[in-house]
UniProtKB/TrEMBL annotation:
Protein origin, superkingdom: Bacteria
Gene that encodes the chain: coaE
Enzyme Commission number(s) from the entry: 2.7.1.24
Name of protein: Dephospho-CoA kinase
GO terms under cellular component: cytoplasm
Function: Catalyzes the phosphorylation of the 3'-hydroxyl group of dephosphocoenzyme A to form coenzyme A.
Listed GO biological process terms: coenzyme A biosynthetic process
Catalytic activity as recorded in UniProt: 3'-dephospho-CoA + ATP = ADP + CoA + H(+)
HAMAP family: Dephospho_CoA_kinase
NCBIfam families (UniProt xref): dephospho-CoA kinase, PRK03333.1
InterPro entries referenced in this protein's UniProt entry, alphabetically: Depp_CoAkinase, P-loop_NTPase
Amino acid sequence: MPLVALTGGIASGKSTIAARLAAHGAEIVDADRIVRDVQAPGSPVLDRIVAAFGDGVVAPDGTLDRAALGALVFADDDARARLNAIVHPAVREESARRFRTAFAADPDRVVVYDVPLLAEARSDDPWDLVLVADAPADLRIRRMVELRGMDEADAAARVAAQVDDAARRALADVVIDTDGDLAHTLRQVDAVWEGLPSLIAARRR
């Protein structure tokens, strides 16, 4: 029952890696998707967020207005800590449920948890392997500007708001260098997949 964590900073190529692992047969559990699911209308998590931050974080259709909430917590460490105290336990519980479901369906399947905030929230969990997508901050900023149409200052602020790259690399069993072309990234992912049993055995030793 291999349980692999995949993390990386914003625009580091993590989604590309996850897609390649899925193509090889891994079950991908997406932390961002879980966050959206646990914050769905009518959920206890959304109710607690509204109680903490006000009705202004709810869109007219009753869903969480992520942009409005982000504006409140992005540059406010205390507010972000309050939000994380609401969201992280629910995400942890739901991710564990999805891991159990995946392994019950196929005990031998590789399950990959695609989790941006591994260093911030899940570094001590019992992973069989930790993969880190890694690219220089200036390249990731350029990707956000060119591929996502973001303002450069906004992109730089988002990179700066995350844990620094060295902290993520310190958790890694394997660093996947994503500053080259797509083929360069995919070759590394293929090599990880091929060597997964030995990589996991090495970590366990």
